[in-house]
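DM between two lab members

TW: hey, do you still have the DUF4253 domain-containing protein entry open?
JB: yeah, one sec
JB: this one, 205 aa:
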Amino acid sequence: MGRPLSLDHVEAVRLEEVLATDFAEYRRRRLPFWTDYPTPAPVPEGIEPWPHDPGPPFERWPGLTPQMPLTSEGPTPQETAASLLAGLIETGRFGLDECRLVLVPAQRSSDALALIGWSAEAPLPLLCALLRSWEDRFGAQVVALFGSELHVSVARPPVGAEAVNLLALEHVLSTADNIVDDPPTPFPDYAADLVGRTSWSFWWD
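TW: and the structure you got?
JB:
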């Protein structure tokens, strides 16, 4: 934990404008890797070469993923968060068995990272703005932090192919190092894995 970040910095983020600018720069840098697929470099015997990544199927910023509707069926955001936390504790993954409960004076879980001054390589104002938006659109809740890892539960995850492509792009623009880069994952494969997924994990090196 570090110095708390005022929520004014989060509220000042114009999410659509920032993501549109970030996507244009991201596409400019990555386009050669998506379009000019070279012959795979020689690798040691028994080692698979990295798969080719065609990148997101968008030439310009396509907008945010549509909100998933609220229904009387299915778990609530609180129930989904409790289920994820129970699973993390049971498996003991990511060192979460050494974590401690933290009470944060936040009206919504998406503001917790700012109010505790989470210290990581993540762009904190942008990430908190994304988390607020995911909370509104998908019932997302911040559940756990460990080092530079963030675990989020999702009560109403997108299920359609077009929606998960849009969502995967939002994940990419969060700047998390594990999204398509670590391990190397083609964008379409990462997006397909988000269909109905009720937990998202991010980490920054």
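TW: got it. The longest strand covers residues 140-146. The two ends are 16 Å apart (CA to CA).
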